[in-house]
Design a protein that fits this description.
two-stranded antiparallel sheet; alpha+beta; elongated; 3-stranded antiparallel beta sheet; 1 helix; Alpha-Beta Plaits
């Protein structure tokens, strides 16, 4: 299974080789998430802020048992593709 996603003009392909097995189903729950700053302010121009943002996102995902497949931090937004547990609703992401 192969999924193609476009981030700011560049296409990224994700190849899923393993499926997760649950009691009544088999599959992956990949979600594409984009987080933007207010008024698209270019807040994360400095590398220090990008690193802090990445660490904060990874800690939050680890706390909620979300696996980050792709994390790309731009100047005014963040693109993520994550594999969520089936018990977590999309509204709570």
């Amino acid at each position: 299974m192969e999924t193609q996603t476009t981030f700011s003009g560049s296409a990224i392909k994700i190849q899923v080789t393993e499926y997760q097995h649950y009691e009544n189903s088999v599959g992956n729950n990949l979600q594409s998430i984009q987080i933007t700053t207010k008024y698209r302010y270019k807040m994360m121009r400095k590398e220090v802020l990008q690193v802090e943002c990445k660490v904060a996102i990874e800690e939050a995902c680890k706390k909620h048992k979300i696996e980050v497949k792709i994390l790309k931090i731009m100047n005014e937004h963040v693109h993520m593709i994550v594999d969520c547990p089936r018990t977590l609703s999309v509204a709570k992401l």
